[in-house]
Amino acid sequence: MSLTFILLALLVLAVVGYMVGRGKALSSAGGDARELHSLPGYYGWNVVVSTLVPSLLLLVAWLFVQPIILNSQVSSRISEETIAASSLDLVMSDVVRVAEGLDVAVSQGGMSSDEASSLRTELTDVRSRLGQVGVALGSDVTSETLRAAQTYRSISSTGYLLRSIAVLAVAIAGLAFGVMRTNKDFRARNVVEAAVRYLLIAAASIAILTTVGIVLSLIFNTVEFFRLYPASEFFFGLVWSPSFGGGSELGIVPLIWATLYISLIALAVAVPIGLFAAIYLSEYATPHVRAIAKPLLEILAGIPTIVYGLFALLTVGPLLASFFGSGGALGVNWMSGASSVFTAGVVMGIMLIPFVSSLSDDIINAVPQAMRDGSLGLGATHSETVKQVILPAALPGIVGAILLAASRAIGETMIVVLGAGAAARLSLNPLEAMTTVTAKIVSQLTGDADFASPEALVAFALGMTLFVITLGLNIVALYIVRKYREQYD
After folding, report:
1. Which residues does 364 contact at the CB level (< 8 Å), separation at least 6?
2. Residue 42 covered by a domain
3. In a designed cystine with 380, which of 99, 321, 359, 375 is the match (CB 3.0 to 4.6 A)?
4. Band of the pLDDT at 72, cuts 50, 70, 90?
């Protein structure tokens, strides 16, 4: 039974358990809900909890444990010569691929299980018959791989059958247990609320553990990288020239420079436009105009970054090249192509406008009305009130919003990949192509790189450096915003 059918079966059992538990509770109270300790629905949910929680926990544990046992059983049948010629991971990936091909052949190719088994000794026939259903085994499939694939398929089929039986048996046992202890005096509400509390704790724990796991993976791989490559050359090197054949120069300074340069241009575009838009919407726009303009402005935040990247590559870049490139309207040759720091910075700034405007608008609106009334009562004009009272009062929150937008700009990838180019260089010319930390993380992990080499592990060192920078900006921004909220809430 597939995982989908198991989940559907558990859902059906949960629905049946809810109705049976609720009905039994009312029956034990003679049909009078006032005699029950809890509301009737709690008794039904108690049975649902008893049915789903143990069965789902068993299912999750099975999904983790079965692949480990399966790989252990199959890898023991692979000879040491085959492992030495390649690697165990590559051999196992071939075994899984061939096993999936055999499943497709049996299900779609019109072959019985016995016919599929006989293919172990007929390698040519396997390739031709599986090719009829679009399964490419490749030219390096051996008889040993086919035998291991048959074993993999047999053990996995047994595991799936045992999984279905075990999970459904536990679910039925939980349903029976929940129904048996249901009576009018049972404290169902306490049990259900405790289950909900544990569910919320588990959700919070998953979020925290995920963050911890990400950080630890970065740390471990970064430490491994610095065992292979000097940290001083990485942090202070001025040349970025990776080479998987050896002799790489992996200095991060050009990447950090381009990252900060593009982010600075983006903020130079986003901050004035976003701040002025927030001042207009909060202080000058009528309610009707605000109701229309603010949602339209925030649509920019919902556009995928790949669309912004294409906009930079196909529209903004060629437009800038028509002015600053060879044969352009200005008659200069400052820009050799559509990709440049300025192209990526301008488009990224457009993307950041709603971040700055929405946060600044909320912060400006949070300034107490009494401060506005006091300024106007003393004879100041509306513009003077905005300039001398509202903006100074909202300045800490606006600075926090700008720092949050800066951390968003530093972590952007797609706009940089498509709009800024791929050259790692130190230059003050914003019309030259450069690349950032995020773009190089993508390029270093793309392809058939050996993950034990410094050229692949450097991506984790880059990610760790970027993580520290953005974390610092977020901490400063949250600190400033928190101080502001404590002052005016």
Report:
1. 278, 279, 282, 283, 390, 391, 394, 398
2. yes
3. 375
4. confident
